[in-house]
Amino acid sequence: MVYPEASRWGAPDAIAPLYDDVYRDGVISTVNVVEALQEFWQAKASRGAGGAGAGTAAGALVIYESVPAAHPPYVCYVTLPGGACFGSFQNCPTKAEARRSAAKIALMNSVFNDHESRLISDHFIEKAVAEARASFAGAGDNAHSQDTNAGIAAFRFMLEANKGRTMLEFQELMTVFQLLHWNGSLRAMRERQCSRQEVVAHYSARALDDAMREQMALEWAAKERDSIAAGNGGVLRGELARAERELRAARLAARELRFPKEKRDILVLAARVAPPQPQQ
């Protein structure tokens, strides 16, 4: 990955008092976090549209996804407008508690990132780009260094095109480019001499939807076939195991986790369409 970790934009320990008000002694205290999260984003959408009404508010709905499980602990994910995703960060004995757990961390990050200091500005961009460069300093060979520099340049370009927004609202576009880098698509587009502006403009107008996931899954299924045909074994099993570990670690650490979750979902889909590995 050639972009700074999303955890760098997460809520810090300084907002612990808000957490204590939302969650105390394992029970909901003064705040219904599921309703509060929904109301926060509805109000934000109405302000952004000058009070545009119900149609705008409907677009601000948060989306919950419960992971199928026959027994606890249960897991739930919540995706916010703009694409940021958070998950239940506790061992939850019920599906309802898993939903509340995901809503709690999403609400805290929503409030924190809505502060004026968290808006994407010139100062924010310089700081984020400097952190991105520092996180990859001295890592990898020359080819990796070229990929890193290109990725950071694209990161800056996308930030500059989204001034005035929060990082949570910017997350879906960020995730798309993280996936394109992970999938090898950015390098392929660079080799076809597509300009950075053309690539960003194209994907800025596309949603991270089922069609994009299916296309990436087909590409990973093709990589699996090629790897097996070359006698190297498949690539999906290792990639999927790594994505599962990254997703679980991000969820339990209460970090933003859209990128590892999308990787996991794409690889699961790829495994369904890829040929089975031959028996040894």
Descriptive notes:
Helix 5 runs antiparallel to helix 6 (142-160), helix 7 packs across helix 12 and helix 11 (236-252) runs antiparallel to helix 12 (258-273). The chain is 58% helix and 5% strand. It contains twelve helices and five strands. Strand 4 and strand 5 (85-87) form a beta hairpin. It has helices at 16-22, 33-48, 54-58, 95-113, 122-135, 142-160, 171-183, 185-191, 196-204, 210-229, 236-252, 258-273, and strands at residues 23-24, 27-28, 63-66, 76-79, 85-87. The strands form two sheets. A three-stranded antiparallel β-sheet has the order 3-4-5, with helices on one face. It has a two-stranded antiparallel ribbon with strand order 1-2. Among the domains are: 31-48 and 55-118, Double Stranded RNA Binding Domain (2-Layer Sandwich), CATH 3.30.160; 207-279.
Mean pLDDT: 81
Strand coverage percent: 5-15%
Catalogue the unreliable spans: 1-28, 50-58
- Note the gap between the termini: 33 Å
Largest sheet: 3 strands, antiparallel
Q: What is the H-and-E element order?
A: HEEHHEEEHHHHHHHHH
How helical, in percent, are the residues?
55-70%
Instruction: Give the spatial strand order of the biggest sheet.
Output: 3-4-5
Q: What does the overall shape look like?
A: globular
Report the CATH topology name of the domain at 31-48 and 55-118.
Double Stranded RNA Binding Domain
Classified by CATH, the class of the domain at 31-48 and 55-118 is Alpha Beta
What is the count of DSSP helices, taking H or I runs of 4+ residues? 12
How many β-strands, per DSSP? 5
The CATH architecture of the domain at 31-48 and 55-118 can be given as 2-Layer Sandwich
Going by helix content, strand content and strand pairing, the class is: mainly alpha
